[in-house]
Automatic annotation (TrEMBL):
Function, in words: Catalyzes the insertion of molybdate into adenylated molybdopterin with the concomitant release of AMP.
Biochemical pathway: Cofactor biosynthesis; molybdopterin biosynthesis
Entry's EC annotation: 2.10.1.1
Class of the enzyme per the UniProt entry, highest EC level: transferase
Catalysed conversion reaction: adenylyl-molybdopterin + molybdate = Mo-molybdopterin + AMP + H(+)
Lineage, top ranks: Bacteria, Bacillati, Actinomycetota, Actinomycetes, Mycobacteriales
Essential cofactor(s): Mg(2+)
Name by which UniProt lists this protein: Molybdopterin molybdenumtransferase
A cellular-component GO term for this protein: cytosol
Native source species: Dietzia natronolimnaea
Record's signal peptide: none
Length: 596
């Protein structure tokens, strides 16, 4: 079959429903979708042409639509084949057998919309079009006779051009046979569909949460009360900085050219009494003091010489090294009123909070801080301070108290010590519905430790169903920490379910916890990327790894290649976690997260 069949794989769309993400690189079931599709078509077709950025060819102009992309792919195939398979890159379940069925259907007379047999002048269909499980035509999963496809593209080009044409226009007026292929025709257009495909790549978590969760409402609050929140609107200065001309150093305010007679009284910070200088005079001045009217220069003490001759006023003379120096800060030197100090998405950290106060702002528009409460689960868990010997089968809570700090580092403000949920359906229902106390009902995020599995004692998923929650994320392809869950509760709260093993819980809190704050607040957070040696030994096939990272004393980082998840001893002395993607090679850039 491959000798007479070619393939066009379209991988150049804007991905607008995915926030502009490159569909072809999105990982489903551990493989980029483009890799899955190309693998399927390569088993059926000889020449395979990929159309899109980084592909074999590109539609002109770029992003001019799938019809233009198909034309570019067909031109690259030329007349080397008789049949052409046309597929999109967003079909994660596509297999070779489905494509063989479509190609085989080109040899059968097609049926029209009423089910009657319909033929063209050759007695064969021009195209075989896939139909999904919902009965919908999948216009970008089809097989064509090459000559029929070329003729159709030529006709569309003559009647208005190919750019911007809907792909269904290819099939108008054509004799088409439809083949119900079911699941292999499923396409992935949204982050919700990505998440529904099973455990997702860690790299996709932030986008999935942004798409699936509703941001917190905006509030206007005094800067000091909003510390740790995220700006929902730009931070715009109300006052210039400084508001009036002031001295930057202890020294002398000077008027016009010198030498200057020291006739003015000393000016101190906070002194707003009227004062002025005339040409050729000077006055002592302190750092931060308003400069006297008439001053056009301030020189610090070490740049002048003060002499006194008899009973007259002292004389201030600039030293040669004072040439070009001026310690007078004009009004608005740092910023003018109306200047944007920070864009929406910036965290109101201590420095930005101080800047807001300097700019005269009495309120800022923010989302957050995100309020969270930690709840541990498991009847085997005892309080952290329980003395030995412990009853058989029981363990101390060695992660709950620490998670308060880890989540705080991620941007979640935890209230009080962790609570505990017994292993009963009733107790889990109380946590999810807010009946377990004000700590859980008042929080924006309930962080549940454990119960994310599917064991006999894991009551979380049935409780989410009973509560009417929407699961946004269920599993991440990462180790440790893959068994995690995020759900939107009906009352607007969010559940973050963490694995029960301590290292897995910390890893998920440090990564997904950050992404959750980003989604709820609109926070902008650039990654900290550093080169790390030895990644080829640390990387794992099919999933991302999270490993303790320690400074190596030479400006770099070293990783622990093997860690245990049942305790945090392997994190001791490691101020950061390294996010090592699948297939990472030595020296690649990896994200470093300050976990505590």
């Amino acid at each position: 079959m491959t000798d007479s069949v070619g393939a066009i794989v379209l991988a150049g769309g804007r991905g607008s429903r995915l926030g502009g993400a490159d569909k072809s690189g999105i990982t489903i079931a551990g493989r980029p979708m483009l890799e899955t599709v190309v693998g399927a078509v390569a088993a059926v077709a000889g020449p395979v042409v990929t159309v899109g950025p980084g592909g074999d060819t590109r539609e002109e102009p770029a992003f001019s639509g799938p019809v233009a992309g198909i034309a570019a792919g067909l031109a690259a195939l030329a007349d080397r084949v008789d049949l052409v398979v046309v597929v999109a890159c967003d079909l994660p379940d596509l297999d070779a057998e489905t494509l063989r069925r479509l190609v085989a259907a080109l040899g059968r007379p097609p049926a029209d919309s009423t089910g009657r047999t319909a033929t063209d002048s050759t007695g064969r269909p021009a195209a075989a079009l896939a139909v999904d499980t919902g009965g919908r035509d999948q216009y970008l999963l089809a097989a064509w006779h090459r000559r029929a496809l070329a003729a159709r593209l030529e006709a569309l080009g003559r009647s208005g051009g190919l750019a911007g044409r809907p792909v269904r226009a290819l099939y108008d007026d054509e004799v088409v046979t439809r083949v119900t292929v079911g699941a292999p025709a499923r396409d992935v257009d949204t982050w919700a569909e990505v998440a529904a495909s099973g455990p997702i790549a860690l790299a996709h978590v932030r986008a999935v949460l942004r798409a699936g969760l509703t941001p917190l409402p905006t509030t206007a609050r005094p800067p000091l009360e909003a510390a740790g929140a995220v700006l929902a609107a730009p931070l715009v200065a109300a006052d210039p900085m400084p508001r009036e001309p002031v001295s930057a150093m202890d020294g002398y305010a000077l008027a016009c050219e010198g030498p200057w007679r020291l006739t003015g009284r000393a000016r101190r910070a906070g002194d707003d009494s009227p004062a002025g200088l005339v040409a050729g005079t000077a006055a002592p001045i302190a750092t931060g003091a308003l400069v006297p009217a008439g001053s056009d220069r301030v020189l610090r003490h070490e740049l002048v010489e003060v002499t006194r001759d008899g009973s007259g006023p002292a004389v201030v003379t600039a030293l040669p090294r004072a040439a070009g120096q001026n310690d007078l800060r004009p009004a608005g030197e740092d910023w003018a009123a109306g200047h944007e100090l920070a864009d929406a998405g910036a965290t109101l950290d201590p420095a930005l909070t101080s800047a807001a106060l300097s700019a005269g702002l009495t309120s800022v528009t923010v989302r957050g801080p995100v309020r969270a409460v930690v709840v541990t689960t498991g009847d085997e868990i005892l309080p952290a301070h329980t003395p030995s010997p412990l009853p058989p089968g029981r363990i101390r809570d060695t992660v709950g108290p620490l998670l308060v700090e880890v989540l705080g580092r991620a941007g979640l403000a935890c209230s009080g010590p962790p609570g505990h949920c017994p292993d009963t359906a009733e107790a889990m229902d109380a946590v999810l519905t807010g009946r377990a106390g004000s700590a859980t009902s008042d929080a924006d995020v309930v962080v549940l430790v454990g119960a994310t599995g599917r064991g006999v004692a894991d009551h979380l998923r049935p409780a989410l169903d009973r509560a009417g929650a929407t699961i946004v994320l269920d599993g991440v392809r990462v180790r440790p920490g893959g068994s995690q869950l995020v759900a939107a509760l009906p009352d607007g709260r969010v559940l973050l379910g963490l694995p029960g093993n301590p290292l897995a819980a910390v890893s998920a809190a440090a990564t997904t916890g950050r992404a959750l704050v980003d989604a709820l607040t609109g926070r902008s957070r650039p990654e900290v990327l550093v080169p790390v040696p030895g990644l080829d030994r640390a990387a794992a096939p099919g999933r991302t790894r999270i490993l303790p990272a320690r400074p190596d004393g030479a400006g770099g980082w070293s990783l622990s290649a093997r860690v245990r998840t049942a305790h945090l001893a392997d994190l001791a002395g490691a101020p950061a976690l390294a996010v090592v993607p699948e297939g990472a090679a030595s020296g690649d850039l990896v994200e470093i997260i300050d976990w505590i």
